[in-house]
Amino acid sequence: MKRDSDREIAVADIGGTHARFARARIGEDRQVSLCEPIVLKTGDYPDLPSAWRAFLAREPGFAPAGAAFALAGPVGEGPFKLTNADWRFDPDTLPGELEVADVTLLNDFAAIAHAVAGLGKDDLVHLAGPDAPLPAKGTVTVIGPGTGLGIAHFRMHEGRALVQATEGSHIDFAPVCALDDAILAALRERFERVSVERVMSGEGIVPIQAAIAAHEGRKPVLDDPLAIWKAGMAGQDELAARAVAHFVATLGRIAGDYALAHGASAVVIAGGLGQRLQQHLRAPAFHEAFIAKGRYAKLMKAMPVALVRHSQPGLVGAALAHGVG
Q1: What is the pLDDT of residue 324?
Q2: CB 165 within 8 Å of CB 152
C-alpha cells in the first residue's frame, strides 16, 4: 500500500518496561519528523488498547491516519505477546480495537534496523574498527541490550532496507572463561535453560557481579541492578565496576559472534543501555573481545562498529516501516 507522506500517523515503541508513543510524519525525502514522545509504563496498563486511549487523551484532536507499533517480542500472523510483559496482540482484531484501519506491527529491533538504515551519519557514533560509513552493500548487524536483548540485521537493496528480525538473543549462552562458567552455573540453578539474554540484558549485571563476588569469597554491597549499573559505570563501587567491565567485554564478544553468523560488514549497537555505556564501549576491552575470533580476527578488525546516537530510533524505524508497508 502506498502511503501519503502528508498524513500524520501514530508510532509507538513498546517494551517490557516502557511504551513510548508519538505523532510522526514522513517527508518525501524519507525523513521522519517526530513530536515529543509520551512515555507510559507498560506495567500500568493491561494491554495496548488501554495505553492507546491514554496516549490519545494526551493528544486532544489527534486523529491518526495510521499507526505503527514496534513490539519487544516475536511478531507473527496470529496472536502473540510481548516477551517481557503480559500484553497480548491479535493482528486481526487490533485495528478495530484501536479504531485505526491502517496498522503496522513489527518487532522492536526490526524497527531499530529500519531506523539505522535511514539515519544520517550524525546519528551514529564511531566505536571501534574503521571510522567509515555503514556499507552501501552487505549486511549490517544491529544489537542492543536493555530490558532484554535485541538482535536484527538488514541489507540495502535498490535504496530500500531489507530487514530481518530475529530472536537471536534466545540462543544458548556459551561461556569462554571461568567467570562465565560460574555465571552459567548460577543461572542454571534458577532457570531450566540459560539464553544469551539472561546475561546480556539489564538484569544480567546481577549474576555477573554475584559470580565475581563468590569467586573471591565476598558479599556484594549492592544487589539492585540499577544501583549496580549506576555505581559501576561511575566507578563508585569496585565490584560493580568490574561487573560492568565484564558485561562490556561479553557484549563485544557476543556482537562479534552475531556479526559472523550474519555475514555482516558492519555492526551497530543500539538501545538506551548501549548509549549510557558509550565511553565504556570505546575502551579497548570491548573491541578486543569483538575481534577475538581466531582465524577471523583480521576480518573482524576491518569491520566498523558504531553506536546509535538518536534518542528514539524505535519510533523512527516504526514510521519508516509503515511508510514502505
Answers
A1: 60
A2: yes
